[in-house]
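Name: Nucleotide sugar dehydrogenase
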Amino acid sequence: MLRTITREGKMEAEKVYDVGIVGLGYVGLTLATVLADTGNSVIGIEKRADVVDLTNRGVPHFSEVGLSDALNRVTVSGRLVAAQQFDRNAVCRTYIITVGTPLSSDGKVRLDMIEAATRQVAENMPDGALVILRSTVQVETTRKIVSPILAATGKRFDIAMCPERTLEGRALQELRELPQIIGAEDAAGSDRAAAVFQRLTSSIVKVSSPEAAEIVKLIDNTFRDVQFAFANEVARLCDAFGVNAHEVISSGKLGYPRTNVALPGLVGGPCLEKDPHILLQSARTRGLSLEITAAGRLVNERQPSETVDFISQEIARRQLSTPLRVRVIGMAFKGVPATDDMRGSMSIKVVDALKKAHPDAEIGLFDPVIAPEVLADTFPDETIFSRFGEAVSGASVVIIANNHPALGAISPRTMSEFIAPRGFVFDYWNHFSHLPTSELGDSYFAVGHTESAA
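Structure predicted for Nucleotide sugar dehydrogenase:
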């Protein structure tokens, strides 16, 4: 056991943790829990006092399948503790940086939190520590930002980039199943980082450098973003010709292995809304312009305003009476797997576009996972509903904004019995495309299906 000398000259035992994780957001808390559950002693550092308190009580601060039981188990056992900062008498063998990298108002990725977290690690780490960057970052951040801050301490260290790639709603499962990407500056760092993640999974993929690992994460999400953008392009085309995009896409890939077009819908979330921008920013540092990446983001980012334009035209065509009662159902950025995460949610962009187009409308919100009090805190000017039926009743327009299965449980024809006369449903996720036209009625529209059913 290491020992330190206090200001009074007394010897104190120094606590050594297997892993220290800086940042207990979605990425950090799920990783900390699974690492602790596999037998590691883990300390999680988080500046938000409320998150530290909840974590130490074994209570997650977000919804994630299986996390509540697992977190309670590792905190009760003492294998995971949380604090707002490293204690001077506690060091770690391995440090993992998992803080967020949001975009600034000018669209560039912020690295101030990465820099601050690295300084925390640099101050605390003992000689010979392993430092792993897991946050999504601009290419060369590991080598040009994190490593120099650590090196300035004069201590020896190994460093690796091991990007997070889990899917919200399946994080605990995927941390134990997905291949872990390891990109280090040398073989020693690569081997040490691989040993950390081999406690979770036997599937380790070593790449040649931190930059290769950084790019892996960025292209993973950018590829998906471009795929979805093409699906939304198909929807625009089908709308122009009065054809059902869901039918076109689904029929075209039946038994045809060379085409697997995604279905259209809102594209956002904490990764897809920003990672393509980080990739674009990285490319610009080398004088490159990534046209397909930029076009994909353009298509997906303008979808809320385009679809609200259609909704407004339909409101006018139907001469709906005022005050308009517009309901947006599904505020989390996705519904499958279910989550309560609203970071980067395009549902919020839809609400913003609706408020600009119809400033006098009463806008009501409901989500099957997000607690009503959380919605009320986030949207203090809107009406919040705790039940789907209450939200739909008397509505002029019902907008289904994510793909949670519960939002497809009541057919449009049934909904039409509860909404206002001449009211209608706009569905971003084609929940009901499998139904016959008799169940769709004449007041149902979807992305890529803006011709009402007869």
